[in-house]
Amino acid sequence: MLSRPEHLHHFPTLRSINPPRAAVVLGWMMGIGISLTLALLFCVPWVQTAAGVGRVIAPNPADRVQAITAFVQGRVERWHVQDGQAVREGDAIVQLVDNDPLLLTRLASEREHGLAEIKAAEKALQVAEGEVSQTQSAVEKGYISRRSFEAAQTRVAERRARLAEAKAKLTRLDVTMNRQSAQLVRAPRDGRILHINAATGSTLVNAGDILATLAPHAPDRVAELMVNGLDVALIRPGYPVRLAFEGWPAIQFSGWPSVAHGMFDGRVRSIDPSAQQTGLFRVLVEPNPDARAWPDPEFIPLGAKVQGWVQMETVKIGYELWRQLNSFPPEFGQSQQSAQTEKSAKKS
What we know:
By secondary structure, the protein is of the alpha+beta class. The chain has 7 helices and 14 strands.
């Protein structure tokens, strides 16, 4: 039996109640628990976050998976690579040949003929210009009429037109031969062949047809997060972001970033002004140069899934629970806005 306080002698009914020890202990535990809960709700800080999921992409189009296309019409003669093979910039990918195997020979003959025409036209122009000089002297001395001098000038103009036409023809031939010399398709940059789309020998291709796909090595990467429209209005470029990559062990506490483990830091690079078809907004997150680097591309390649939390204002846990229950947007404070203003001022 628990001893009764002496002040309870004024309350005979209460004095007659003799609660069990377990009830008294439970009451004390509930009282202490409620007090701790209230202290937790109104005293412990919580970092508000805007969560989003997405994938790793390359912001530079040259770093993305790209198609290797045929520059001219022809037939696939030989492949110099295989699926999955690593290549360096300038390495031969595929050799094409024209449907007419004697095309280059005929073009070379036409080019020689064009050079001969140019030489003949230049010689004829020199002769015509000499005739103009002679007729001009004869006209000044009165030996011939001025009409003969004008006819000589007309012949000079005709010779010049023929020379220009011959040079234009030679230029067209050079362009055709240069295009045909592009039948050897080379790798535009370092990378790995993902897929070959054409066979050898009997496959005919047109200019612009996709022959293979190439995945570049060591691309610059950003995280593409899809964020709810309720939160995106308060996100600004430069806000810190915590990222958890697919396949990388991580323990996340969004409200207490210092407790999280296995997370990587980033910062907001840009926010799309319009929503995607799903109704979510795209937020691009770049690596934070002041934090540890993201995992190597061989561990986190392009297309890997990622989950991110854009860090915003610091509030109390009680306020955050109330906001979440009422579906209110995050707190719009002045701390991060002023920080961004200071960063912009320093950069300028």
